[in-house]
Design brief:
Blueprint: H1 2-30, H2 37-57, E1 63-65, E2 74-76, E3 83-85, E4 91-93, H3 97-130
Antiparallel strand pairs: 1-2, 2-3, 3-4
Helix pairs in contact: 1-3, 2-3
Length: about 130
């Protein structure tokens, strides 16, 4: 049940990240944004690129313990589980392993943009209160 919750939450965050990416780029064009908005957008894109690449390359280092009947096991990849590794070290790859690795990279790429979107909404609310 917890795995389903993590996947659903990650999917919602990924959708929020896509929305945030397009909204941030739109705000850059309209000019109704903080003075340092373009630098923050570039920084968020670069941070997302580094996080996405790191999650792609480091999938097998992002292990989550998953106890089952046979003993201790681990899922590799976060938030989308790509591979299951049992207690003996045997890897069980699934038909969706490649898709999960790509989804992890996209998730970590979009996460900083979601944070930037929260900052942008806060700034706009402050501007509306002041003006």
């Amino acid at each position: 049940m917890m795995l389903i919750t993590i996947v659903v939450a990650a999917s919602l965050l990924m959708l929020a990240g896509v929305y945030s990416l397009f909204n941030s780029l739109f705000l850059s064009r309209t000019g109704h944004c903080p003075k340092n908005w373009n630098r923050l957008c570039l920084g968020s894109l670069l941070a997302g690129l580094v996080l996405g690449l790191a999650s792609w390359l480091g999938t097998f280092w992002m292990l989550l313990p998953f106890p089952n009947i046979a003993g201790e096991g681990w899922f590799a990849g976060f938030p989308y589980m790509a591979v299951y590794i049992d207690g003996t070290g045997y890897r069980y790859q699934f038909s969706f392993t490649r898709i999960s690795v790509i989804a992890n990279a996209v998730f970590w790429f979009l996460l900083p943009m979601a944070g930037l979107h929260v900052y942008g909404r806060h700034w706009r609310r402050q501007q509306q209160k002041a003006g």
